[in-house]
Amino acid sequence: MSITRKIVLYSLLIISVIFMMFPIFYAFMISFMQGGEILRGNLIPDSFTFANYQSAFEKVPLFQYLWNSFYVSAVVMIGQLIVSSLAAYAFVFMTFKGRDFIFFVFISTMMIPWEATMVPNFITVQKLGWLNSYSSLTIPFFALAFGTFLLRQQFKTIPKELFEASQVAGISRFRFFWNVVLPVSKTSLITLGIYSFLTTWNMYLWPLLVTNNESVRTVQIGLKQLQSQEISTEWGVVMAAVVVVILPTLILLFIGQKRLQNGLTQGAIK
Questions:
Q1: Which residue among 90, 154, 160, 203 sits deepest, i.e. has the most Cβ atoms within 10 Å of its Cβ?
Q2: What is the pLDDT of residues 161-214, one digit of tens each?
Q3: Dihedral sign, CA of 30, 35, 37, 39?
């Protein structure tokens, strides 16, 4: 690649990064501003103060919301890893009648919009008595078609002869799954875990529908609650809460970016 092409390429990349990161940077700056500075359109605050962060935690139970989101996201992540890995293992290494058809139907659910299943799911959790509980926020999301598809593609790269040899040696199916399949598929499992955690962390509509008290509500609802209270005067407080909420997701993305990219392409490339 010539020097001119490199200069053009890197210039375009730098411009793209600036456009993508500017909203986050500006939100971070606003979180340190007072109301008058925001109205004047300041890009940098005159003086950095943490008063907005203190107000954000005082006006809504932000600590409780953060804990609820972290707990729900972690439980959903673990549940999806368990269910998706076991389902993918069955679709790859176990032979039964109608296996391919069942997998086709299972994957077809990815084409159904989540909004179309919201009412039946709500009626189900209501009849089970799960409203205003962690169960309604976690259990309905354990079965994930995308996760099963992702892990199935990875599991298919493991030679069938290895599984047949383990059967001849008297190794149980679960032991083969635990000692061979999972260690080999570590990258895909980490990818699915990151995807599940971030998706659940950013969920808004379903938690709003199945919860109506602060004890189990998640942080996205807390942000909306704070915005409704402060939209006319104190955007700095709202942005301070936004920074607190997006910080864990940004850290997770930066740490796991390489594994996330590798995991999403590994099965397809192989």
A1: 154
A2: 899 898 888 888 999 999 999 999 988 898 899 889 989 999 998 999 999 888
A3: positive
